[in-house]
């Protein structure tokens, strides 16, 4: 490998070893790792063609991938070789790894799920393509200035992207606007504007390097670089218009997936990548099939949320307008290919587009949506409409055009049936099914936690990495005090490493023997970082009131970004940082309580924090978090959860056992009931002197003395519009935290509980999730055996 790296350095980067920078070395190593994947990747593609296997197409606006070097190395079993080669070349391996930018083409859980799925699809040997957008700028970079969030554009593509192959020959013309002509019963769309979608492929190779799939991301390019005719006529704006449109479409990721933006550009992005993907998969299908009616036997299209829901009308459009099918047959055929994953019940996050806007950008699609809506109405009179009050409702569209609709945790799926799609569920009672989310154990244990990985592998060998349920064998070790001590020691190694990193990045000294209490996720009111902070202040008050008590030392670690336009979330960040300055400087509590908030939470930071966590904060208002996957990463890495009965917490608790989980708070049903009671939050505050005191301190400017009114709005919200019931759950949360304090005092029993978490989390592998999709939705079998069949 050493020679391969030197060769790449010389001939691909044009550098000699004496003058190579860290970047050059990183690129050379990455290119070599990519070379190693290519044969597997070709073999897999050939095997899929050779056996006419059904392909899975995973359409997602977001892929939150993170770094790839370590994944590529460990999945191909090249760890020792790569380390030795870099050492022989006089390079520090870890420095090289940390030079890679995070591919942050996603906001949070939804995009990270898509990335975990890509890893599992390849590991299971299911022929699949991930389709998305190659954003020039991923999720913004966050920094803090005097405690406030600042956003800077993210620039992962400012350097060459090592993993991708650009495919200038794979291009599709994507139209927008214009008009539709009708003649002899046939419609034809004449777009007014168009751009080119160009493919960029990243090979994704699974565990043991047996199978490789493709992540195909589309960039937008102008149809004509520059309209010289317009320019010569003196129309300078028109000359650059199509270029400008093209450049904006794949320019930036929308920095929010929980509120509806209603922006025209967003609709264009959605249509852009969906249309390119549908055209691409049809081309592939037609290259070895003659009968378009066989499409559902060869193609399974999964829509990750409603963002690609225009896939339904687009596929129908191509089948009718280009392939000459009749509308009813086209709708039926499309539906047999399509399935839709719902990710949210938050009403503000359910996409809808004004009919006028959609009709202006996609006039033919609006006609088709009307036809779909009318035919569904004719079959099921009185059913919910796609078009309502001048809006196109993308959830209803996705539902009606899918043969299966899935929720992402058991509780969420039940709520989908009872709330957002209650009426459609009555009409199609077998369409909604559950597929509880999962996480890839390759990244989220094997890769990020070498200390624990090695301990497990010494005990079980390495086959657990692709068969995570084997971890259950560790249950037998709970009485083995030597093993429990080793388990504890592995956690401590990670905590020491994190303490050093926090010392460097946040300039705060923390005690590795304190409880590391971690809440990392997007900042959102429903996720209730605010409740966590209020509890921290309440604890601080009690520590100051009773400094003589034997308090369990704690480090409260926060991480997460707020959407740039989400002012309450930004206030919460500001308050956390303000509070940290006051509390961290208090000589009375300094050795027992610290707050740290390292900026710019991303996948790489998650990989650093999760292995070092003792306590995982999963405290959303019950009924609001669809599943969560952060909760799974923590429990797998031996953190105990403090959490509500929400999302996948419910199933995690069932697996790890209620005695190894700190449960508190109202249930989803109780939340709905409580919200109906007038003045519920004032009543809750009235009943809790502890909470009243904290709110008083914030209101009076105890944490913002230079600007005492800063948090009046925030405190007022808790009194009068506490939509997420922070006040109602506060006392129960505080009491449960004190139970955690006591439990942490016995390190042996805490470590045993932590071990039981790791041992019980096998079911939450995304391999299990993907097997479920393959069995219940796609009707494909995981067949790594395909390779042998075609050989
Ligand atoms: C796993 C993950 C998430 C999702 O976390 P939740 O706690 O489920 O919201 C978000 N961002 C990153 C970087 C992640 O790795």
From TrEMBL:
Its cofactor is pyridoxal 5'-phosphate. The keyword Lipid metabolism does not apply. Keywords: Carbohydrate metabolism, Glycosyltransferase, Pyridoxal phosphate, Transferase. GO terms for molecular function: 1,4-alpha-oligoglucan phosphorylase activity. The keyword Repeat does not apply. InterPro entries: Glycg_phsphrylas, Glyco_trans_35, Pyridoxal_P_attach_site. It catalyses: [(1->4)-alpha-D-glucosyl](n) + phosphate = [(1->4)-alpha-D-glucosyl](n-1) + alpha-D-glucose 1-phosphate. It is an enzyme of class 2 (transferase). Belongs to the glycogen phosphorylase family. PANTHER family: GLYCOGEN PHOSPHORYLASE, GLYCOGEN PHOSPHORYLASE, LIVER FORM. Phosphorylase is an important allosteric enzyme in carbohydrate metabolism. Enzymes from different sources differ in their regulatory mechanisms and in their natural substrates. However, all known phosphorylases share catalytic and structural properties. Allosteric enzyme that catalyzes the rate-limiting step in glycogen catabolism, the phosphorolytic cleavage of glycogen to produce glucose-1-phosphate, and plays a central role in maintaining cellular and organismal glucose homeostasis. This is Alpha-1,4 glucan phosphorylase. It comes from Meridianimarinicoccus marinus.
């Amino acid at each position: 490998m050493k020679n391969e790296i030197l060769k790449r350095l010389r001939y691909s980067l044009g550098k000699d070893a004496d003058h190579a920078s860290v970047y050059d070395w990183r690129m050379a190593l990455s290119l070599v790792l990519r070379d190693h994947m290519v044969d597997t990747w070709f073999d897999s593609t050939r095997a899929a063609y050779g056996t006419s296997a059904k392909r899975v197409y995973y359409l997602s606006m977001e892929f939150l991938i993170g770094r790839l070097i370590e994944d590529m190395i460990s999945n191909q079993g090249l760890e020792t070789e790569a380390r030795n080669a870099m050492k022989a070349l006089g390079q520090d391996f870890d420095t090289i790894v940390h030079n890679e930018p995070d591919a942050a083409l996603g906001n949070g859980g939804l995009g990270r799920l898509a990335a975990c799925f890509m890893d599992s699809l390849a590991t299971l040997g299911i022929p699949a393509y991930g389709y998305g957008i190659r954003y020039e700028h991923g999720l913004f970079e966050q920094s803090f200035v005097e405690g406030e969030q600042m956003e800077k554009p993210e620039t992962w593509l400012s350097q060459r992207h090592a993993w991708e192959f650009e495919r200038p020959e794979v291009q599709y013309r994507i139209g927008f606007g214009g008009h539709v002509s009708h003649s002899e019963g046939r419609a034809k769309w004449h777009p007014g504007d168009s751009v080119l979608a160009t493919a960029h492929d990243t090979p994704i190779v699974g565990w043991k390097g047996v199978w490789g799939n493709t992540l195909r991301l589309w960039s937008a390019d102008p149809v004509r670089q520059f309209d010289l005719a317009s320019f010569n006529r003196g129309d300078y704006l028109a000359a650059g218009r199509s270029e400008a449109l093209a450049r904006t479409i794949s320019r930036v990721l929308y920095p929010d997936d929980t509120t509806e933006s209603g922006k025209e550009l967003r609709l264009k992005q959605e249509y852009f990548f969906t249309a390119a993907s549908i055209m691409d998969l049809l081309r592939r299908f037609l290259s070895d099939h003659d009968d378009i009616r066989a499409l559902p036997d060869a193609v399974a299209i999964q829509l990750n949320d409603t963002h690609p829901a225009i896939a339904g009308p687009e596929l129908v459009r191509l089948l009718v307008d280009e392939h000459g099918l009749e509308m009813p047959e086209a709708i039926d055929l499309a539906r047999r290919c399509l399935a839709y994953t719902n990710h949210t019940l938050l009403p503000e996050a359910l996409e809808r587009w004004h009919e006028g806007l959609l009709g202006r950008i996609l006039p033919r699609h609006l006609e088709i949506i009307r036809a779909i809506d009318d035919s569904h109405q004719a079959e099921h009179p009185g059913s919910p409409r796609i078009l309502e009050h001048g809006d196109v409702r993308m959830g209803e569209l996705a539902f009606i055009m899918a043969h299966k609709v899935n929720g992402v945790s058991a509780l969420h799926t039940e709520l989908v049936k009872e709330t957002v799609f209650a009426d459609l569920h009555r009409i199609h009672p077998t369409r909604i099914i559950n597929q509880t989310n999962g996480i890839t154990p390759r990244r989220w244990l094997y890769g990020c936690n070498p200390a624990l990985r090695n301990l497990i592998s010494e005990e079980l060998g390495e086959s657990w990495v692709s068969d995570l349920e084997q971890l259950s064998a560790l249950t037998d070790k709970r009485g083995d005090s030597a093993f429990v001590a080793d388990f504890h020691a592995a956690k401590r190694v990670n905590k020491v490493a994190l303490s050093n990193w926090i010392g460097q990045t946040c300039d705060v000294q923390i005690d590795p023997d304190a409880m590391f209490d971690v809440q990392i996720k997007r900042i959102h009111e429903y996720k209730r970082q605010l409740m966590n902070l209020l509890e921290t202040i309440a604890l601080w008050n009690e520590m100051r009131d009773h400094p003589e008590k034997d308090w369990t030392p704690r480090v409260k670690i926060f991480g997460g970004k707020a959407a740039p336009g989400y002012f309450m979330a930004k206030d919460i960040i500001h308050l956390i940082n303000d509070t940290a300055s006051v509390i961290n400087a208090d000589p009375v509590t300094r050795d027992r309580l610290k707050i740290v908030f390292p900026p710019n939470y991303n996948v790489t930071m998650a990989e650093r924090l999760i292995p070092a966590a003792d306590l995982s904060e999963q405290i959303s208002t019950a009924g609001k978090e669809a599943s969560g996957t952060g909760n799974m990463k923590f429990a797998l890495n031996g953190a105990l959860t403090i959490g509500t009965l929400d999302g996948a917490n419910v199933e995690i608790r069932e697996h790890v056992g209620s005695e190894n989980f700190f449960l508190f708070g109202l249930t989803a049903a109780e939340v709905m009931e409580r919200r109906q009671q007038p003045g519920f939050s004032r009543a809750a505050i009235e009943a809790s002197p502890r909470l009243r005191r904290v709110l008083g301190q914030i209101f009076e400017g105890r944490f913002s003395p230079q600007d005492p009114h800063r948090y009046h709005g925030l405190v007022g919200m808790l009194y009068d519009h506490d939509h997420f019931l922070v006040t109602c759950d506060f006392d129960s949360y505080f009491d449960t935290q004190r139970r955690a304090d006591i439990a942490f005092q016995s390190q042996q029993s805490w470590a045993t509980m932590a071990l039981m978490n790791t041992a019980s989390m096998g079911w939450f592998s995304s391999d299990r999730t993907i097997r479920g999709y393959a069995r219940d939705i796609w009707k494909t079998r995981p067949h790594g055996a395909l390779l042998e069949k075609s050989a």
